[in-house]
Design goal:
Length: 614
């Protein structure tokens, strides 16, 4: 089932009429019908599904059950369904109001702001609406005119006619006038700041609330100039793209299109009747209907006579993503552009005395501060990715266990999401490093890459077909805990003979210390190979690391093996011997295909870039 026919949520605001019920086939029993929320996942008025196996369920329930994938890849940057479409019947004047930007609304209201567009379905002769100011005014004059009820004197009245389109960006003071019927496409928000209401009273007999201080904070006080930059669309912005469809039923009777994996398609029928075909399904439509084709639905055909608004979500222009690595010693955070370049970085020591929740709260606050310092608006940041050492439940956003951080069952995604108002994804830090190298470093020319991160532990990230390999159960790969020597050295995980017990920095330093009975630096280990003790230490290290590499090659057959982490500059000199070991011990040997072996390029920035790509 790919075509959803929706039943709207109805609103009986005091300024509404009856045209939506009488002319647009909206089923409603009340006396006043101001708005019909035709496509909505908003809790204040969810639309319901009318057809198929999901009939009787809300659109949100359908999405929850089938996953956000039904909305398309361009919607990944949204934490919830991105838009709300509605019909508006203004029998009387609407209040003068303004909507906040995403940044202000998320910080003050806990939901997104609102940018919207209006398509005028009908207008009585002489009907007009207010659209910004005639001339620029000061905030002092704005405040004074609200107080003295003279605001209308400085507003910009615009006479409208059927077929007119207006784009209402957040911060634009506006009001629909009486006698106007409108189709509205907007961000999925219900935040409105009312500044003037004609002295009307609500159902309770009291004047409706005004929101003056908030309106003063968000209103753009200069005249609004509409440009033609949306062509060929009637509206186009980061939140929605709207096209107009006209089929006259004679010369133009059929329209064919394709819904790919990038976005769903919303079809709002303004007039006419006919049918829609997709994947063997056939749905009839009539004036007032709202239909949704899920992402990836493929080819569709609209037949009949109709006017309709077609809404999709395009890729965001100039997106910024944040990538964060929470390590046992330090925390790194960076801002990454759409070219996978780090444009800002911050690092600070991890305070191990703090609880997990305190550390995550601090990370959230510093991430928001980094965005602000670099003048990146909140709605420009399309996602935050976080890498953490340990066992990760990516699906539910939880750190199951992190030996390095001493964390157990930390709902990282949920805690961050309460402060950071955009999608948050988490993964193992080694997976993040591998992904970073795969998209922007030594592995960007390969689709199948395996990376060993040789640091305080031994992490491993496996990229297959360009995606992080997790397996069928939570936790992902733990290559550092493959056994390379039965009953060997004690590992921090409690088992014996793990690769990490031989190939990590602490294990290598410990082996050298035991040989020399004193502290030995990494530099000394790898620059003293004429010392038989250091030679044997390095030889054992190479043997164990090589065994781990061979095991991975035999299991996954990647195109490229990368060596990263603190030890990567030192193990570069081992590459010839490690390649020989791969040729001798990998299944098929020189008769098979031996992966490339190289050192990672991005250093400790790989994790941030990879996290930003989650």
């Amino acid at each position: 089932m790919t075509i959803l026919k929706l039943k709207p949520a109805c609103k009986d605001y005091l300024w509404g009429g009856q045209r939506l019920k009488n002319e647009f086939n909206v089923e409603y029993d009340g006396d006043v019908l101001a708005e019909a929320w035709e496509l909505s996942c908003h809790p204040d008025g969810p639309s319901m599904i009318e057809n198929g196996p999901y009939a009787g369920k809300s659109l949100k329930e359908y999405i929850d059950e089938n996953g956000m994938e039904v909305l398309g890849t361009h919607c990944r940057r949204f934490r919830e369904f991105p838009i709300l479409t509605k019909f508006i019947d203004a029998k009387d004047n609407l209040s003068v109001q303004v909507h906040p930007s995403n940044g202000y609304a998320l910080q003050n209201e806990g939901q997104y702001g609102k940018t919207e567009m209006w398509y005028v379905l009908d207008a009585e002769p002489g009907a007009y609406l207010y659209y910004g100011f005639r001339n620029e005014i000061s905030i002092e004059e704005f405040s004074e005119r609200i107080r003295t009820n003279t605001l209308l004197e400085v507003l910009n009245p615009v006479e409208v006619h059927k077929g007119d389109t207006l784009f209402i960006e957040s911060g634009t003071l506006h009001a629909i006038g009486k006698g106007i019927l409108i189709a509205e496409i907007q961000q999925n928000s219900n935040v409105t700041y009312r500044v003037y209401d004609y002295g009307r009273v609500g159902k309770d007999g009291r004047k409706r609330d005004l929101h003056i201080e908030k309106a003063l904070a968000v209103t753009n006080r200069v005249p609004i100039v509409q440009h033609g930059e949306n062509y060929p669309h009637i509206a186009d912005c980061d939140y929605f793209t709207v096209d107009k469809l006209d089929l006259d039923g004679r010369l133009t009777y059929r329209m064919q299109g394709n819904v790919d994996e990038t976005s769903f398609l919303s079809i709002l029928i303004l007039d006419g009747e006919g049918t829609i075909h997709n994947r063997g399904e056939k749905i009839s439509y009539r004036k007032g209907d709202s239909l949704l084709l899920t992402a990836g639905s493929g080819d569709y055909t609209i037949e009949g006579k109709c006017d309709a608004l077609l809404t999709t979500i395009r890729e965001k222009a100039n997106p910024i993503r944040a990538g964060i690595i929470i390590g046992s010693a330090k925390i790194q955070m960076g801002l990454v552009n759409d070219q996978n370049e780090l444009i800002a970085v911050r690092e600070y020591e991890t305070d191990r005395k703090k609880t997990a929740a305190e550390i995550v709260d601090e990370v959230a606050e510093k991430t928001l501060a980094l965005l602000e310092e670099n003048k990146v608006p909140l709605d420009q940041c399309i996602g935050v990715g976080v890498g953490v050492p340990g066992t990760i439940d990516r699906r539910n956003g939880r750190v199951i266990y992190s030996n390095n951080l001493r964390w157990e069952d930390v709902s990282l995604q949920e805690i961050l999401g309460k402060v950071i108002p955009c999608p948050v994804r988490i993964a193992n830090d080694a997976d993040c490093a591998a992904l970073g190298e795969a998209v922007a470093g030594a592995g960007k020319e390969y689709s199948d890459v395996m990376m060993f991160t040789l640091g305080n532990g031994v992490g491993g990230g496996i990229i297959l077909n360009g995606e992080v390999f997790e397996g069928g159960i939570m936790g992902g790969s733990e290559v550092g805990h493959m056994v390379v020597r039965q009953a060997g050295r004690q590992c921090t995980c409690g088992r014996k003979g793990c690769l990490e017990a031989y190939a990590s920095v602490p294990s290598l330093l410990k082996a050298a210390r035991q040989r020399k009975n004193r502290e030995v630096s990494l530099q000394e280990i790898f620059s003293s190979l004429d010392d038989i003790d250091m030679e044997e230490v390095v030889e054992q290290y190479r043997e164990m690391l090589g065994t781990g590499i061979v095991n991975i090659v035999n299991l996954f057959r990647p195109q490229l093996i990368l060596l990263g982490g603190a030890l990567s500059p030192f193990v570069r000199q081992m590459i010839p011997e490690l390649k020989t070991m791969m040729e001798e011990d990998c299944f098929g040997g020189v008769y098979g295909t031996i992966p490339e072996l190289n050192v990672a390029q991005l250093g400790d920035t790989a994790g941030m870039i990879g996290a930003a790509n989650l």
